[in-house]
Design a protein that fits this description.
It is a single chain. The N and C termini lie far apart (about 55 Å). The protein has one domain. Helix 1 crosses helix 2, helix 1 crosses helix 5 and helix 3 packs antiparallel against helix 4. It has eight helices and no strands. The protein is an all-alpha fold and about 210 residues long.
Length: about 210
């Protein structure tokens, strides 16, 4: 999947998990972890969907979070591993069990990331996520000042670079609009926090 599908599915899965467990969830953090495995795209020499897409690695990294935060950590873990176990598993596979094995695991349905089928799936996920984002009023939380808004810089970069610079890969024309909408939402949220920070800095000391 492209960033749009991962962001949408990460939000939906994390939100659903938080409802089931009756816990509050930080929306910017959900979006962040949903694309976190794709940092390998920005690391020279590191194979995409390789070691950074290992469920074993992320499970070990999340262990301290589970110890300290208990079930409150679960929505974020679910939002993260869906990237690997759903999005990438459906469209080509990944090294899910690295370093135990370097084998690649995928569903083998032949759904290419550039296929019309995948684009339609990402559109459905995107529209569903936007609908729930506004219906649940999570969108309004993004439009309020909060330190965690700044973590949205990472999803913005992972969405912005492919869409407009064709780096490290080209995004299909059919997914440009959802990319733009996510970019607008995240950028607006970041600017709200930046404005608050700058305003506070510019206030004269009494």
């Amino acid at each position: 999947m492209y960033a749009v599908g991962h962001l949408a599915l990460g939000y939906l899965s994390g939100k659903a998990t938080s409802k089931i467990l009756k816990t509050n969830v930080n929306v910017p953090l959900l979006f962040l972890v949903s694309v976190l495995p794709d940092i390998d795209l920005l690391i020279p020499g590191l194979k995409h969907r390789g070691p950074i897409h290992s469920v074993i690695i992320f499970s070990l990294l999340f262990l301290p979070t589970f110890i300290f935060f208990g079930k409150r950590a679960t929505p974020y873990f679910v939002a993260l591993v869906q990237h690997i176990l759903v999005g990438d598993y459906l469209t080509g596979g990944a090294q899910l069990l690295w370093p135990v094995t370097t084998n690649w695991y995928g569903l083998g349905l032949g759904i290419k990331v550039t296929s019309l089928t995948n684009i339609l799936i990402e559109w459905i996920l995107f529209l569903t996520s936007i609908m729930i984002l506004f219906k649940s009023r999570d969108a309004w939380l993004l439009f309020q000042r909060h330190p965690s808004n700044m973590v949205l810089l990472i999803p913005v970069v992972t969405v912005l670079l492919p869409a407009f610079l064709s780096f490290p890969f080209h995004v299909p024309l059919g997914l440009v609009i959802p990319h733009l909408i996510y970019i607008a939402l995240f950028t607006f949220s970041i600017l709200i926090d930046l404005k608050a920070i700058l305003t506070k800095t510019e206030k004269p000391n009494k």
